[in-house]
Amino acid sequence: MVSKPLRPHTDRSTKRAVVGEIQAGKLSVADAAVRLRVSPRSVHRWVARAAQASPRSRFVAVDLLPGAPTPVPVAEIGLRGGRTLRVPIDVDRGALSRLVRVLEATC
Fold this sequence. Notes:
This protein has about 110 residues and is mainly alpha-helical.
């Protein structure tokens, strides 16, 4: 009789770190699965569980103003939870402050 190989055990801290990298766009599910020698389905489950456990990790859609030029120099602002906000470099500071407050309150 041929037995199946044991599945590797992945500790919680490793799962959290990998999910964080995936959510930040630094790692794909497929690459994470290969790195940890688990199935992509397992990694998808970790991501789904993390999203259920953290209701603040929602996507917030933002509409850009019509007619805004496409190639605009941008500034990147780090938000809570490892999220990044990219805004035009010449954005109005008052508007930016209000936007950051809304994003931090809703996510």
